[in-house]
Write a structure and sequence with these properties.
By secondary structure, the chain is mainly alpha-helical. Helix content is 75%, strand content 0%. The longest helix has 31 residues. The mean pLDDT is 91. Keywords: Membrane, Transmembrane, Transmembrane helix.
Length: 169
């Protein structure tokens, strides 16, 4: 994903405009909506805050492009900031699904779904690290890792929408 916006790539300027920034706004808006509905539920506040952090980190990842060569021995300052933002992107959507495990507000089905998504994220992360060291297919595992996190986020969104529908019926 980051290669499209990498320093010196033909799509460096366009990529964050059509990818990072709109996604960042959507993540922040979704996180904010969870915070607004959370009242005094700490778990919901943690989930909402984690999604907002995810959105902000997504924006920073677009604002600071990765180095053109991901295997460069010494990353530029922009590349280092991009990597740090990527770390927050990943960690924020590990914290959020893990936090629902300790809440009474979520069904056992959603908790199992959350565990599966986190385990897939960690599996793909381990495979990504291994692939990066071999310099082969790390981008594939990065996408699978992030994809498993987005599946959880979509599941959370569907769950929240279903709850709203039930409440308003």
């Amino acid at each position: 994903m980051s290669e499209l916006g990498a320093s010196g790539s033909p799509t460096q300027q366009l990529s964050p405009i059509i990818n990072n920034y709109p996604l960042a706004l959507m993540f922040c808006a979704f996180g904010w909506s969870i915070l607004l509905k959370s009242e005094e539920d700490f778990t919901e506040q943690l989930v909402g805050a984690s999604i907002i952090i995810h959105g902000l980190a997504t924006a920073f990842a677009g604002l600071f492009p990765m180095d053109r060569d991901p295997y460069t021995p010494k990353a530029s300052l922009r590349g280092q900031i991009h990597g740090l933002a990527g770390m927050f992107v990943m960690i924020s959507l590990i914290v959020a699904p893990c936090s629902v495990l300790f809440s009474g507000s979520y069904s056992i089905v959603f908790k199992v779904f959350s565990i599966v998504c986190v385990l897939l994220t960690l599996l793909f992360l381990a495979l990504m690290i291994k692939a990066y060291k071999k310099r082969k297919l790390s981008g594939l595992f990065q996408r699978l890792c992030y994809g498993s996190q987005l599946v959880w986020l979509a599941g959370l969104s569907v769950r929240n929408e279903m709850l709203l529908t039930l409440i308003n019926s």
